[in-house]
Amino acid sequence: MKTSYKIAIVGSTGLVGRTVLKILEEKNFKNCSYTLFSSKKSAGSKLEFLGQSYVICELTENSFNSKFDYAIFCAGGEVSKKYIPIAVKNGCTVIDNSSVFRMDPKVPLVVPEVNPEKIFENSGIIANPNCSTIQAVIPLKPLDIKYNIKRIVYSTYQAVSGAGRQGILDLESGIKGEPPKKFPYPIFNNCIPHIDVFLEDGYTKEEHKMIDETRKILDKPNLPITATTVRVPVRNCHSESINIEFEKEFDIYDVFKLLEKSPGIIVVDNPSKNYYPLATKADGGDEILVGRIRRDFSIKSGLNIWCVGDNLRKGAASNAVQILEKLL
Amino acid sequence: MKTSYKIAIVGSTGLVGRTVLKILEEKNFKNCSYTLFSSKKSAGSKLEFLGQSYVICELTENSFNSKFDYAIFCAGGEVSKKYIPIAVKNGCTVIDNSSVFRMDPKVPLVVPEVNPEKIFENSGIIANPNCSTIQAVIPLKPLDIKYNIKRIVYSTYQAVSGAGRQGILDLESGIKGEPPKKFPYPIFNNCIPHIDVFLEDGYTKEEHKMIDETRKILDKPNLPITATTVRVPVRNCHSESINIEFEKEFDIYDVFKLLEKSPGIIVVDNPSKNYYPLATKADGGDEILVGRIRRDFSIKSGLNIWCVGDNLRKGAASNAVQILEKLL
């Protein structure tokens, strides 16, 4: 690794940004020089990172005048839309956590376990997929290669941390009976079938993200997929009930073996011992836990799985850092 | 109504039993004489009911010697298995909340909005379906009549009250960091894809109940159905993501209109106003809230809906009392 890469972390004080810093520390990413950006609000504050004290810099239109090699953006769509083109024009390669560029045909949408080869087809921007998509495509990819996926039905159980720090605060304050600030309804004691905004067709943008991004990452632009995405009162880690129909017939033991040897997955599936994926077990890890693997008897070549992933880590920060690692 | 019916409530101190009493009070079911039974543990304690003080009687093998006209059993499978045959032999007609007799071909499995005509085909026992099945078949029945259901994919989000009082206590104590007593893992901050016991094929008994009972109630013994049933950290009211494929084509506006005029349903579906079914809104009601009604574009004649019901009331107690009302 070249030792002098200059790296910008944009949105470094947010929930995902802090997780990016944590993962860089875990991976001991020392041989780079970092600049940590935030909005005006948090700028000037200090952060301990890799044994040093960093003063957070305000992100401005001139921030990328001093050339950066790489940037990880985790500050939301508006910031990405405005500042990423400036960064790219100044020669910086950007890994973007927002949804702004994900469906741009010139922008690779990458999960390193699934389509790492796309990383180098970038024109300055590599998009990090939606958290709920990342944890789904990791088990779906090897299954698709072997059995050719014909249709997917997603139902998600998404944690409040996916809505940022205020999402977590809404759950915590909801327990005490206080009204929500982030969510339209109390999330405590509720399942809210509404993530991101509603679109004309009655689906939410989150549901469309799962459909469109899965198609792009699996490189099957017309794959029939439907989705119902739901916020549940869980602090961290998304769970997903995934129903899959394949073109080819499968042996259920081969499915277990295939998933067990596939990258980024831990198979947790032993009903007799009550082993199955749980949010509390996936929390803090980078692997996707896959279990409840069983034939769907209602259709030819149907399969049900239950997968759980840490949406802040593998669903966002770890995936971005893995892309950075591949780039370096 | 004859004024002298003798009615036994078995399991009257449990979560469902108390809800049965509450609903009898709401409906002002005064013109009957009641005997409230429980296990030895709660026997002798007192309960206020319909303005009177009742001493809870211990259920024994002789309890049905004094003839009862009707009994509602809400004390679990073991009690139903042992005492219902005795009650029936003594001329009592029983409405049973347990799963013991549900799939017996001689026992009608009844949701009054769906198949009320079956009530009178009983040989002494009428089974109350599983909570998660009741709230599903109420919207499914009118859709099936009009469009002929071809396949169903269920993913459920089930409240802890479905596991009885200790389920609620597990959620409450889990918030304080205490270990669970009812569930195999903490339910706070978790989604547990495990309700009832696991069977040989990798499915849980709860999933089989949903599949088998839906088929029986819709009177389609071979209908292809699959299910993933999940416990979520919600106090009361189950939510369900239901994906349906029909034989016949539909117009989405006709689906709305059909559901709106169907019994037992409140359509809550206006995304532009953030109207959709929520556990906190269904709590305490007897109607099933149905929303997120939208075409599933991944398949010909596919539909997604999200339905929420109070599992203690319509999912158990209210349904049983409605059956009793039809009998009287």
DSSP helical segment count of chain A: 8
What CATH calls the topology of the largest domain in chain A is Dihydrodipicolinate Reductase, domain 2
Large-scale geometry of chain A: globular
Q: Class of the largest domain in chain A in CATH? A: Alpha Beta
Gyration radius from CA atoms of chain A, angstroms: 20 Å
**Strand/helix succession of chain A:** EHEEEEEHEEHEHHEEHEHEEH
By CATH, the superfamily of the largest domain in chain A comes out as Dihydrodipicolinate Reductase, domain 2
Return residue spans of chain A where pLDDT drops below 50 for at least 5 consecutive residues.
none
Q: Largest interface: which pair?
A: A-B, 53 and 53 residues
Structure write-up:
The structure is a homodimer of 328-residue chains. With 328 residues, chain A is of the alpha/beta class. The first copy, chain A, folds into 2 domains: 5-128 and 316-327, NAD(P)-binding Rossmann-like Domain (Rossmann fold); 132-311, Dihydrodipicolinate Reductase, domain 2 (2-Layer Sandwich). Chain A contains 8 helices and 14 strands. A 6-stranded parallel β-sheet of chain A has the order 5-2-1-6-7-8, sandwiched between helices. In chain A, strand 1 (5-10), helix 1 (15-26) and strand 2 form a beta-alpha-beta unit. In chain A, helix 1 packs across helix 8 (313-327) and helix 3 (131-147) packs across helix 8. Chain A is globular and about 60 Å long. The mean pLDDT of chain A is 96. Chains A and B meet through strand 9, strand 10, strand 11, strand 13 and strand 14 of A and strand 9, strand 10, strand 11, strand 13 and strand 14 of B.
